[in-house]
Amino acid sequence: MIEFELVNIEIPVFEPEFFIISLTKVIKDEGFELGDVTVILVTDGYLLELNQKHLDHDYYTDIITFDYCKENVISGDLFISVDRVRENSDTFQTDFKVELNRVMIHGVLHLCGYKDKTDEEERFMRLLENKYLN
User: Fold this and answer.
1) Are the C-beta atoms of residues 41 and 82 closer than 8 Å to each other?
2) Domain extent for 116
3) How many domains does the chain have?
4) Confidence class of residue 10 from pLDDT cuts 50, 70 and 90?
């Protein structure tokens, strides 16, 4: 099951069904089963605090993924900064909904075992993000 929580933010015309279909497809196409995935949409400040507390990083980011996967079942929490997504959509001149979907897909790909620590891993994840966005 995929659930959404909005913490101290508003998103006009938020349509969870669209994202549920998109993320479920990614999980199935990657050969996994859907467990419990929660997407928590937050502010920059909220995500910065999580980044400092849990990862010892002192910078803004668009997503932090907490992995609770077991065997072939994808479960986890995706904390997403709506502020970062809005800024990214402006920077890359893309629709907010498309950029939000990209970030959610990115988090699910992490739950599927993909990493983005090296340039090569990051390029491969971008290819997968684009594949699933199309």
Assistant:
1) yes
2) 2-133
3) 1
4) confident
- Dihedral sign, Cα of residue 20, residue 26, residue 29, residue 32: negative
Give residue 90's pLDDT: 93
* Mean pLDDT, residues 16-26: 94
**pLDDT band (50, 70, 90) for residue 61:** confident
User: Is the entire prediction scored with pTM above 0.85?
Assistant: yes
CATH classification at residue 84:
3.40.390.30
Residue type, 110: H
Contacts of 94 (CB under 8 A, 6+ apart): 88
3-state secondary structure the chain: CEEEEECCCCCCCCCHHHHHHHHHHHHHHCCCEEEEEEEEEECHHHHHHHHHHHHCCCCCCCEEEEECCECCEEEEEEEEEHHHHHHHHHHCCCCHHHHHHHHHHHHHHHHCCCCCCCHHHHHHHHHHHHHHHC
